[in-house]
Amino acid sequence: MDIATAAGVVTAIALILASIVIGGGKMGAFVDPPSVMVVVGGGIAATLVAFPLKNFLSVFSVGLKVLFYKSASIPEIIDQIVSLAETARRDGLLALEGRMSEIENEFVALGVQMAVDGARPEVIEDVLRTEVDGVATRHRDGKALFDTLGRYAPAFGMIGTLMGLIIMLGDMSDPSKIGAGMAVALLTTLYGAIMANVICLPFADKLGYTNKQELLVMEIVIRGIMAIQQGENPKVIRQKLTTFVPPKQRGSEEQAA
């Protein structure tokens, strides 16, 4: 599980609840099922209009990916590629066939398998970059889903508030109920703001970040596979790939090598 995502959501909700309690508010006054229905249901309905059903249904798996995403370790990927390069340089490309079972990263395995099969370099790079484009497209669609939910939830919160005000102003026979009616009307705006700023938009931003990380790892893999296929020196390959590692982390990388 991505601890940062879970901790961020839990902390935000806890701070809101604590503020209500410390401010002397009654928790029951902040619960209104019709308001939840307008904001959550309305946001989902608007997103359904904006996306095909197949794409919308993926929102659940995309959400789980945000919570349980574990980024690949760039130093470990570089170490594995350099190790494969050493084997290829010493025993030939076909020797990598015997190491396929050690490779857990599917993208690395795809590139190595194509190299072992004797595919031409331009074909290997074309296939790998097509795979990168496919991953980037899927990630972009997933992020767009949460961006859309985050954009429409506050809008439906405002719609709910206006509906509440219209209902309240339509019946002014009992002035003592105006305050309570106004409070309920404002709840939808609050729900919309929470849904957008605690869940949807942060999830979209996290998806954008994980997309960049995953594409960076794939770029490193492509450069590494192409270098192995061309028979480059493993030390040179490590130097090339280490340029993708932030300068502050390169010292420990070189020591490890």
From TrEMBL:
Membrane topology type: Multi-pass membrane protein
Signal peptide stretch: none
UniProt xrefs under Pfam families: MotA_ExbB, MotA_N
GO biological process: bacterial-type flagellum-dependent swarming motility; chemotaxis; proton transmembrane transport
MotA/TolQ/ExbB proton channel domain residues: 101-219
Keyword field: Cell membrane, Chemotaxis, Flagellar rotation, Hydrogen ion transport, Ion transport, Membrane, Transmembrane, Transmembrane helix, Transport
Spans through the membrane: 34-53, 149-170, 182-204
Residue stretches making up the Motility protein A N-terminal domain: 7-92
Protein name listed in UniProt: Chemotaxis protein PomA
Native species: Pirellulimonas nuda
Gene coding for it: pomA
